[in-house]
Amino acid sequence: MTKTIPQSAKVVIIGGGVAGCSVAYHLSKFGWNDIVLLERDQLTSGTTWHAAGLIGQLGSSATITKLRNYSLNLYKQLEKETGLSTGLKQNGSLTVATSTGRLQELKRQVTTAQLFNVEANEVSKDQIKSLYPLINTDDVIGGVHIPDDGQADPVGVTNVLAKAAKEQGANFIEHCSVKKILIQNKQIVGVETDQGKIDCEYIVLASGMWS
Ligand SMILES: Cc1cc2nc3c(=O)[nH]c(=O)nc-3n(C[C@H](O)[C@H](O)[C@H](O)COP(=O)(O)OP(=O)(O)OC[C@H]3O[C@@H](n4cnc5c(N)ncnc54)[C@H](O)[C@@H]3O)c2cc1C
To answer: From which residue to which does the signal peptide run (predicted)?
Structure first.
Protein backbone atom coordinates (compact mmCIF):
# COMPACT_ATOMS: atom_id res chain seq x y z
CA MET A 1 0.00 0.00 0.00
CA THR A 2 1.32 3.46 -0.87
CA LYS A 3 2.11 5.68 2.11
CA THR A 4 0.50 9.12 2.25
CA ILE A 5 2.97 11.93 1.71
CA PRO A 6 3.32 14.61 4.40
CA GLN A 7 2.41 18.24 3.62
CA SER A 8 5.77 19.48 4.81
CA ALA A 9 9.21 18.36 5.99
CA LYS A 10 12.42 20.12 6.94
CA VAL A 11 14.42 18.03 4.46
CA VAL A 12 13.28 16.13 1.38
CA ILE A 13 15.80 13.60 0.05
CA ILE A 14 15.15 12.66 -3.56
CA GLY A 15 16.31 9.13 -4.35
CA GLY A 16 16.51 5.90 -2.39
CA GLY A 17 19.88 4.55 -3.51
CA VAL A 18 22.84 4.09 -1.21
CA ALA A 19 23.61 7.85 -1.25
CA GLY A 20 20.07 8.97 -0.31
CA CYS A 21 19.73 6.32 2.41
CA SER A 22 23.14 7.20 3.83
CA VAL A 23 22.20 10.89 3.97
CA ALA A 24 18.89 9.98 5.68
CA TYR A 25 20.76 7.84 8.21
CA HIS A 26 23.38 10.48 8.98
CA LEU A 27 20.95 13.42 9.19
CA SER A 28 18.69 11.49 11.55
CA LYS A 29 21.68 10.35 13.59
CA PHE A 30 22.69 13.99 14.08
CA GLY A 31 19.23 14.92 15.31
CA TRP A 32 17.39 16.03 12.15
CA ASN A 33 14.10 14.27 12.68
CA ASP A 34 11.78 15.89 10.14
CA ILE A 35 13.13 14.11 7.07
CA VAL A 36 11.31 12.47 4.20
CA LEU A 37 13.02 10.35 1.55
CA LEU A 38 11.16 9.94 -1.73
CA GLU A 39 11.95 7.07 -4.10
CA ARG A 40 10.15 6.88 -7.41
CA ASP A 41 10.31 3.06 -7.46
CA GLN A 42 11.77 0.84 -4.70
CA LEU A 43 14.86 1.47 -2.56
CA THR A 44 18.02 0.41 -4.46
CA SER A 45 16.25 0.23 -7.83
CA GLY A 46 18.75 2.64 -9.44
CA THR A 47 22.46 2.02 -10.03
CA THR A 48 22.98 0.79 -6.46
CA TRP A 49 21.33 -2.47 -7.41
CA HIS A 50 24.02 -3.12 -10.06
CA ALA A 51 27.11 -2.34 -7.98
CA ALA A 52 29.77 -4.99 -7.47
CA GLY A 53 30.03 -3.88 -3.85
CA LEU A 54 33.78 -3.89 -3.50
CA ILE A 55 34.90 -2.47 -0.16
CA GLY A 56 38.42 -1.12 -0.51
CA GLN A 57 39.92 1.13 2.11
CA LEU A 58 42.93 2.46 0.23
CA GLY A 59 42.07 5.82 -1.31
CA SER A 60 43.89 8.22 -3.58
CA SER A 61 43.84 10.83 -0.81
CA ALA A 62 43.81 10.83 2.99
CA THR A 63 40.18 12.01 3.01
CA ILE A 64 38.99 9.16 0.79
CA THR A 65 40.89 6.58 2.86
CA LYS A 66 39.34 7.96 6.05
CA LEU A 67 35.86 7.93 4.51
CA ARG A 68 36.21 4.35 3.24
CA ASN A 69 37.48 3.12 6.60
CA TYR A 70 34.57 4.90 8.29
CA SER A 71 32.08 3.20 5.93
CA LEU A 72 33.49 -0.26 6.59
CA ASN A 73 33.26 0.21 10.35
CA LEU A 74 29.77 1.71 10.03
CA TYR A 75 28.48 -1.33 8.10
CA LYS A 76 29.78 -3.68 10.78
CA GLN A 77 28.24 -1.59 13.54
CA LEU A 78 24.86 -1.26 11.78
CA GLU A 79 24.64 -5.01 11.20
CA LYS A 80 24.75 -5.44 14.96
CA GLU A 81 22.30 -2.60 15.61
CA THR A 82 19.67 -3.52 13.01
CA GLY A 83 20.02 -7.30 12.91
CA LEU A 84 20.10 -7.11 9.08
CA SER A 85 22.97 -8.33 6.93
CA THR A 86 25.08 -6.15 4.66
CA GLY A 87 26.60 -9.30 3.16
CA LEU A 88 30.02 -8.07 4.26
CA LYS A 89 32.86 -10.52 3.63
CA GLN A 90 36.33 -9.31 4.58
CA ASN A 91 38.32 -11.59 2.33
CA GLY A 92 41.09 -9.06 1.67
CA SER A 93 42.29 -7.28 -1.45
CA LEU A 94 45.43 -7.26 -3.55
CA THR A 95 46.45 -4.25 -5.63
CA VAL A 96 49.36 -4.89 -7.96
CA ALA A 97 51.79 -2.58 -9.73
CA THR A 98 53.45 -3.20 -13.07
CA SER A 99 55.49 0.02 -13.15
CA THR A 100 57.77 1.75 -10.68
CA GLY A 101 55.59 4.87 -10.79
CA ARG A 102 52.49 2.89 -9.79
CA LEU A 103 54.40 1.04 -7.06
CA GLN A 104 55.58 4.36 -5.67
CA GLU A 105 51.99 5.62 -5.61
CA LEU A 106 50.81 2.47 -3.80
CA LYS A 107 53.57 2.83 -1.22
CA ARG A 108 52.47 6.40 -0.56
CA GLN A 109 48.86 5.25 -0.12
CA VAL A 110 49.99 2.53 2.31
CA THR A 111 51.70 5.13 4.49
CA THR A 112 48.52 7.22 4.52
CA ALA A 113 46.35 4.18 5.28
CA GLN A 114 48.53 3.24 8.25
CA LEU A 115 48.00 6.72 9.68
CA PHE A 116 44.28 5.84 9.86
CA ASN A 117 44.90 2.42 11.42
CA VAL A 118 44.09 0.57 8.20
CA GLU A 119 46.29 -2.52 8.03
CA ALA A 120 48.02 -2.30 4.63
CA ASN A 121 51.09 -4.34 3.79
CA GLU A 122 53.51 -4.00 0.91
CA VAL A 123 53.94 -7.38 -0.73
CA SER A 124 56.57 -8.78 -3.09
CA LYS A 125 55.88 -10.60 -6.34
CA ASP A 126 56.36 -13.96 -4.56
CA GLN A 127 54.01 -13.01 -1.73
CA ILE A 128 51.38 -11.94 -4.28
CA LYS A 129 51.65 -15.33 -5.99
CA SER A 130 51.30 -17.14 -2.69
CA LEU A 131 48.26 -15.05 -1.66
CA TYR A 132 46.57 -15.54 -5.05
CA PRO A 133 48.11 -18.51 -6.89
CA LEU A 134 46.00 -18.03 -10.04
CA ILE A 135 47.61 -14.67 -10.88
CA ASN A 136 50.15 -14.30 -13.68
CA THR A 137 52.91 -12.22 -12.09
CA ASP A 138 55.17 -11.94 -15.16
CA ASP A 139 54.80 -8.13 -15.36
CA VAL A 140 54.11 -7.52 -11.66
CA ILE A 141 56.82 -5.80 -9.63
CA GLY A 142 55.06 -5.52 -6.27
CA GLY A 143 51.80 -4.60 -4.63
CA VAL A 144 49.72 -4.04 -1.54
CA HIS A 145 47.65 -6.48 0.49
CA ILE A 146 44.83 -5.18 2.69
CA PRO A 147 43.51 -8.06 4.81
CA ASP A 148 40.32 -6.31 5.98
CA ASP A 149 39.07 -5.21 2.56
CA GLY A 150 36.28 -7.20 0.98
CA GLN A 151 32.84 -7.13 -0.54
CA ALA A 152 29.34 -6.29 0.60
CA ASP A 153 25.89 -6.60 -0.89
CA PRO A 154 24.91 -3.05 -2.01
CA VAL A 155 21.20 -3.80 -1.53
CA GLY A 156 21.93 -5.10 1.97
CA VAL A 157 24.02 -2.03 2.84
CA THR A 158 21.26 0.29 1.63
CA ASN A 159 18.54 -1.56 3.53
CA VAL A 160 20.61 -1.50 6.72
CA LEU A 161 21.10 2.28 6.40
CA ALA A 162 17.38 2.72 5.66
CA LYS A 163 16.29 0.63 8.64
CA ALA A 164 18.62 2.52 10.99
CA ALA A 165 17.36 5.86 9.60
CA LYS A 166 13.71 4.83 10.04
CA GLU A 167 14.41 3.74 13.60
CA GLN A 168 15.69 7.27 14.22
CA GLY A 169 12.52 8.82 12.79
CA ALA A 170 13.17 9.34 9.07
CA ASN A 171 10.13 8.88 6.84
CA PHE A 172 10.68 6.76 3.70
CA ILE A 173 8.15 6.83 0.87
CA GLU A 174 8.58 4.54 -2.12
CA HIS A 175 6.71 4.73 -5.44
CA CYS A 176 6.61 8.51 -5.24
CA SER A 177 8.32 10.44 -8.01
CA VAL A 178 9.49 14.04 -7.72
CA LYS A 179 8.40 15.97 -10.78
CA LYS A 180 9.57 19.46 -9.94
CA ILE A 181 11.65 21.38 -7.42
CA LEU A 182 9.67 24.42 -6.29
CA ILE A 183 11.57 27.69 -5.98
CA GLN A 184 10.46 31.11 -4.72
CA ASN A 185 12.72 34.16 -4.54
CA LYS A 186 15.69 31.99 -5.53
CA GLN A 187 15.07 29.65 -2.59
CA ILE A 188 13.86 26.08 -2.53
CA VAL A 189 10.43 25.92 -0.92
CA GLY A 190 9.24 22.43 -1.78
CA VAL A 191 8.83 19.63 -4.28
CA GLU A 192 5.99 18.66 -6.57
CA THR A 193 5.49 14.89 -6.68
CA ASP A 194 3.13 12.60 -8.55
CA GLN A 195 1.16 12.43 -5.30
CA GLY A 196 1.07 16.13 -4.43
CA LYS A 197 3.24 18.86 -3.00
CA ILE A 198 5.60 18.78 -0.01
CA ASP A 199 6.83 22.08 1.44
CA CYS A 200 10.42 21.88 2.66
CA GLU A 201 13.43 23.96 3.69
CA TYR A 202 16.07 21.79 2.09
CA ILE A 203 16.30 19.17 -0.59
CA VAL A 204 19.07 16.61 -1.03
CA LEU A 205 19.34 15.61 -4.66
CA ALA A 206 20.40 11.95 -4.48
CA SER A 207 18.76 10.80 -7.68
CA GLY A 208 22.04 9.67 -9.21
CA MET A 209 22.20 9.66 -12.98
CA TRP A 210 18.59 10.88 -13.17
CA SER A 211 19.56 14.19 -11.54
C1 LIG B 1 27.91 -2.59 -12.70
C2 LIG B 1 28.27 -1.59 -11.60
C3 LIG B 1 29.23 -1.95 -10.64
C4 LIG B 1 29.58 -1.06 -9.64
N5 LIG B 1 30.49 -1.45 -8.70
C6 LIG B 1 30.84 -0.62 -7.72
C7 LIG B 1 31.77 -0.99 -6.69
O8 LIG B 1 32.28 -2.10 -6.68
N9 LIG B 1 32.09 -0.09 -5.73
C10 LIG B 1 31.54 1.16 -5.72
O11 LIG B 1 31.84 1.96 -4.82
N12 LIG B 1 30.65 1.54 -6.67
C13 LIG B 1 30.29 0.70 -7.65
N14 LIG B 1 29.38 1.11 -8.59
C15 LIG B 1 28.86 2.47 -8.51
C16 LIG B 1 27.71 2.54 -7.52
O17 LIG B 1 26.75 1.56 -7.82
C18 LIG B 1 27.03 3.90 -7.63
O19 LIG B 1 27.99 4.92 -7.55
C20 LIG B 1 26.04 4.11 -6.49
O21 LIG B 1 25.18 3.01 -6.37
C22 LIG B 1 25.23 5.36 -6.76
O23 LIG B 1 24.27 5.49 -5.72
P24 LIG B 1 23.25 6.68 -5.73
O25 LIG B 1 22.42 6.53 -4.49
O26 LIG B 1 23.96 7.96 -5.97
O27 LIG B 1 22.38 6.46 -7.06
P28 LIG B 1 21.25 5.39 -7.40
O29 LIG B 1 21.45 4.07 -6.75
O30 LIG B 1 21.11 5.40 -8.88
O31 LIG B 1 19.97 6.02 -6.72
C32 LIG B 1 19.21 7.06 -7.29
C33 LIG B 1 17.76 6.76 -6.97
O34 LIG B 1 16.99 7.91 -7.30
C35 LIG B 1 15.74 7.46 -7.77
N36 LIG B 1 15.14 8.56 -8.52
C37 LIG B 1 15.55 9.04 -9.71
N38 LIG B 1 14.77 10.07 -10.09
C39 LIG B 1 13.85 10.23 -9.10
C40 LIG B 1 12.75 11.13 -8.92
N41 LIG B 1 12.46 12.08 -9.83
N42 LIG B 1 11.99 11.02 -7.79
C43 LIG B 1 12.29 10.07 -6.85
N44 LIG B 1 13.31 9.20 -6.99
C45 LIG B 1 14.08 9.28 -8.09
C46 LIG B 1 16.08 6.24 -8.61
O47 LIG B 1 14.96 5.39 -8.79
C48 LIG B 1 17.19 5.60 -7.79
O49 LIG B 1 16.71 4.60 -6.91
C50 LIG B 1 28.98 0.24 -9.58
C51 LIG B 1 27.99 0.59 -10.53
C52 LIG B 1 27.63 -0.31 -11.53
C53 LIG B 1 26.56 0.08 -12.53
So the answer is: none
Q: Is the CB of 45 under 6 A from ligand 1?
A: yes
Mean pLDDT of 194-205: 98
Give me ligand 1 centre to Cα 206, in Å.
Answer: 9
pLDDT band at 13 (very low <50, low <70, confident <90, very high): very high
Domains observed in the chain: 8-49+158-210 (3.50.50.60), 54-152 (3.30.9.10)
Distance from C-alpha of 175 to C-alpha of 211, rounded to nearest angstrom: 17
Q: Is 177 in the pocket of ligand 1 (CB under 6 A)?
A: yes
Contacts of range 109-116, beta carbons closer than 8 Å, 24 or more positions apart: 109/58, 109/59, 109/60, 109/65, 109/144, 110/58, 110/144, 112/59, 112/61, 112/62, 112/65, 113/57, 113/58, 113/65, 113/146, 115/62, 116/62, 116/65, 116/66, 116/69
What is the position in ligand 1's atom list of the atom closest to the CA of 41? 47
38 lines ligand 1 (CB under 6 A): yes
Cβ–ligand 1 distance for 178 under 6 Å, the answer: yes
> pLDDT tens digits, residue range 82-101?
999 999 999 999 999 999 99
17 Cβ inside 6 Å of ligand 1: yes
3-state secondary structure of 92: coil
- Provide the pLDDT for residue 24: 98
Q: Is 59 touching ligand 1 by the criterion CB < 6 Å?
A: no
